[in-house]
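Bug #77: duplicate submission created two jobs. Keeping one. Sequence:
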Amino acid sequence: MFDIGFWELVVIGVVALVVIGPERLPKVARIAGLWLGRARRTLASVQDEIRRELKADELKEILEKQARSLPLETILEEPAKRIETPAPGIAAERTPTVGEASAGPRESRPAAGPADRATPAG
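Kept job's structure:
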């Protein structure tokens, strides 16, 4: 922040000692340190608040971008589409396609027996 070297601090200390005097210098230094600490804490809290506000603004922008790309109506309609499709494992009625044999509710296809199975030629 400030570019103050060691020798600049020594000069400031000597001037303060001459101007304030040796009796009051420790008390003034203590008070100056307290004020400096308060200023640093205040500055740090302001910086943290600014960072939080920037992050909140970024989050709002991200949410707005997502809302534009995926409107709420499509999100709400999506579960309705899932309900319309049958769950796996539940047999749904469907019409047979061309070339498919339709088995009625009482008809069943016989299981393939040993004669129906193809045996590899050896």
